[in-house]
Write the structure tokens for this entry.
Amino acid sequence: MKRLKYTLGIVAMLAGSFINAQEVEPTKPEATELYKPVPPKVTPGANGAPPSDAIVLFDGTSLDNWISAVDSTDAKWILNKDGSMTVKDRTGDILSKQNFGSIQLHIEWRSPAEVQRDGQNRGNSGIFLNGLYEVQVLDNNDNDTYVNGQVASIYKQHTPLAMASVPTGEWNTYDMIYHAPEFEKGQKVKSGTLTVIHNGVLVQDHVEIKGTTPYIGWPKNPPHGKGPLRLQDHGDNSRVSYRNIWVRELD
Ligand code: MG
């Protein structure tokens, strides 16, 4: 009993000092000003160029930072003279050679000006964070489809807040903030999250990633660490092009 009283006394004393620390408002401005740690300096890129600390995955000069997802050989997509690359039909997805966890991503994409087919078969590609979680790329202009699979959806998980595409054949930008899920002993203990800005418009606002983004079935949560960025060959001659791809690591 004596020991219990002693313990309770200590707890009460600590709680009291905590409350006092919270209640006593500083009277000098310096008391609420921090000088450390100093954030690193980053030089922003001019006219759409990457910031100084970005890892450039594609600048239009080569496909050297990418491999085929089919057999890990050289990426087979088409390198164009205008600084872009285009999906080469039925050569398979491509993967960045470098693996990433949480990242800020900038990527630009364009569906072909000459329209072919409808629905999910018009200018379909996709950007898979961690190689697993797809942000949809689709030519949605005058082309309806299921809304949780439309352009800028987290495929079959989150409908975008807006449809913000530029006219077909023009360049779109996606800026994303991806926080990877966390796993312990083979189980997910914290979901990943995604924020997506499409042509300057917020379309995914820190949404929870429920798991993988399959065409058929529910999301799955296989444990994983870092993984590649994956770009989709939808296999129907989508002719989607990409350019100016860079990331900043967040972990
Ligand atoms: Mg897709």
